[in-house]
Design a protein that fits this description.
Number of helices: 12
Helix content: 55-70%
Oligomer: single chain
Number of strands: 4
Shape: flat
Keywords: Membrane, Transmembrane, Transmembrane helix
Strand content: under 5%
Organism: Hyaloscypha variabilis (strain UAMH 11265 / GT02V1 / F)
Protein name: DUF6594 domain-containing protein
Radius of gyration: 31 Å
Distance between the termini: 87 Å
Strand order of the largest sheet: 1-2
Order of helices and strands: HHHEHHHHEHHEEHHH
Largest sheet: 2 strands, antiparallel
Length: 282
């Protein structure tokens, strides 16, 4: 016989028992936008500095051993051969402690470089996690949920690359919560339809792509018709110049292209408009 499912009132009164980390972890993993964690940037920097100092001391020890092996009247040690130095205190120091510390230091340093290279988190995504905490007041211990307030130290584990146009549209809560984007997440055991709304990233991306495609098509067709109804080269050049500037702004705003890529696309568009101009003159 299956255990009786607690009522919604019971769950809300004892979120720590019926929700807790099992449901919170499920919520964070349900979408990459929500998978926000602390980077511990200051603490990581301190670890790097400590490792750096450890290696500096080992470097000094190695330098002292080199000086002892090179002093006049000392033992005949071949300083130009690793093989001849095998098994010595210097060789053991170099291949042992120095190697391990350098490996630890450099691996950790490269990892920190990757973490620091991640883009800033959109405020709406941080607010989504904060809203979850507000809707599930007792689910997570207050000291443990306080990490979400460390805005400057937060990272998204898998950030999404979004065009400036989409980021602008998503600033609007009405756009983000439009019913057209809603999806049911029956795979989530702890999904609370009263407090949680999930949207389809694919639907939003398709809408943005369709919008950009429609505007781009209009940018190709509109000057063709306009140039057909104007007279004079100066007026035609003014129209072409306006459309070229508008197209450059569109490419920069509606795509993630680099500046030189945007310039190349604009140059191709300019060549097309010049063909239109020559056809009109003929």
């Amino acid at each position: 016989m299956l255990p009786e499912k607690p009522s919604r009132e019971t769950v809300e009164a004892e979120e720590w028992k019926y929700t807790g980390y099992p449901i919170f972890s499920q919520f964070l993993s349900s979408d990459n936008d929500f998978l926000i964690l602390r980077r511990f940037g200051t603490l990581a920097t301190r670890v790097l500095l400590a490792l750096q100092d450890d290696i500096t001391l080992l470097e000094q020890d190695l330098r002292s051993l080199d000086q002892d092996c090179s002093r006049q009247g000392g033992p005949p040690i071949h300083n130009g051969s690793f093989r001849g130095d095998a098994g010595s205190l210097r060789a053991n120091l170099l291949r042992g402690q120095i190697y391990e510390k350098l490996k630890m230091y450099q691996e950790f340093m490269l990892l920190q470089a990757q973490l620091r290279n991640k883009p800033s988190i959109p405020p709406k995504d941080v607010n989504s996690v904060k809203t979850w905490f507000k809707n599930h007041v007792n689910a997570i211990s207050e000291p443990e949920s306080r990490y979400i307030d460390q805005n400057s130290d937060l990272i998204q584990l898998v950030p999404k690359t979004k065009t400036p146009l989409r980021r602008l549209l998503e600033r609007s809560q009405r756009f983000r919560l439009w019913k057209k984007w809603h999806v049911k997440r029956e795979d989530l055991e702890g999904h609370d339809p009263h407090h949680e709304i999930y949207t389809s990233d694919e639907h939003i991306e398709a809408f943005v792509t369709l919008t950009i495609g429609s505007v781009g098509l209009a940018m190709l067709i509109a000057p063709l018709w306009i140039l057909n109804f104007v007279d004079g080269p100066v007026t035609s050049l003014a129209i072409i110049t306006s459309f070229i500037v508008l197209f450059m702004c569109l490419v920069s705003f509606a795509s993630v292209a680099k500046p030189f890529e945007s310039l190349g696309a604009t140059a191709a568009y300019s060549a097309v408009l010049m063909v239109f101009l020559q056809m009109g003159n003929k």
